[in-house]
Amino acid sequence: MLPRPPADCTVAESGRPPELALESTELPGTTAPQPAELLDLHPAPADLERLVLEGMARQPRQLPAWLLYDAEGSRLFELIGQQPEYGLTRQETALLRERAPELARSLAEGITPAPVLVEFGAGNLSKVGPLLEALQPAAYVALDISLDQLGPSCRALQERHPAVSVLGICCDYADLDQLPPHPLLEGRPRLGFYPGSSLGNFDPPQARALLSRFAHLLGPGSRLLIGIDQPKAPERLEAAYNDAAGVSAAFAFNLLRRLNRELAGDFDPAAFTYHARWADASRIVMALVSRHAQTVTLAGRRWSFTAGEPLITEYSVKYSPEAFHALAAAAGWRAIRRWCDGADDLSLHLLAQADSGPSRTGGETPIQHHADPTPMRNAP
Ligand code: AVI
Known about the structure:
The protein is α/β, with parallel strands linked by helices and 380 residues long. It is built from nine helices and 15 strands. The model is unreliable at 13-30 and 358-380 (pLDDT under 50). Residues 80, 88, 196-198, 200-201, 241, 248, 251, 314, 316 line the site of N,N-dimethyl-L-histidine.
């Protein structure tokens, strides 16, 4: 039997008219697109060293998740998205494709002039196409830590969407005080897009700070469309982060290779084992666990690991809609609407800055309820 739709969620419909399966926009006879622009604000090697030293000194040891995304890490993460156990990427991509016109309408309602769409952690830009088609923003700005991935992805996107000016900014978006000055960003409202549930890779206090930072980077009156994965059966979650093909493990081990290469480390990957488990009823904890007592050199210092000691590579916190709304509210965002996949595994939340738009004191209901009477099915 198919599950019933939750009352507070607009669900993905089964099937889609072919004309709405959006992709390329280039029409015969259109002018050649401008090349996409790229700004490189990647943290300097000294910053990387400082962050690694801070993380290694923590108890338990934990490194910033963005370190996972060098060229090889970005390639492996794309592969994770194709593993049968890891549904997040497929389900969210399908939801974005199926609901793009409605998402764009809600996102840009009452916003003039044409906005700039700013995507945080844009990766290979594989999710934004349908939204760009439907929204037709004046410009699209993609922020990501991996320059190797951002450059080619921005160029390819610019070719597919010649009417939208594309700007790539390679940076740690969680450590950005301002969007850099650029003509494309001047005098236009900004809308934020943060798919993929990457917010879950920050612990809740950091996630709250990141949402506040987004409000600041986007400016007053902005809105944010954000993808959030939800808690589900622990066995399903643990399987998603322990895929049978071992890609999640390879993704974590790649971090040790990066540390060896960039910070003169001598980690022996064979001396660690990869572990991902559901903890505290709220998050997956991914770690490389030391197989035995050992000493490692990194950035000119010696670090000892006891047998069984973890080096945490990532958290992946899952938020119920209610828990996410509370987090967003604490960061100054008001929840406007939620869309979910057929199984209500994950959501796309539309947020507006709490001090913008109609006041909530006049009896306004912050969440629109969109019960869909049609039967649902899981997104492919
Ligand atoms: C990018 N992020 C949302 C992924 C996740 O699901 O937490 C990262 C990941 N790491 C291993 N598998 C997926």
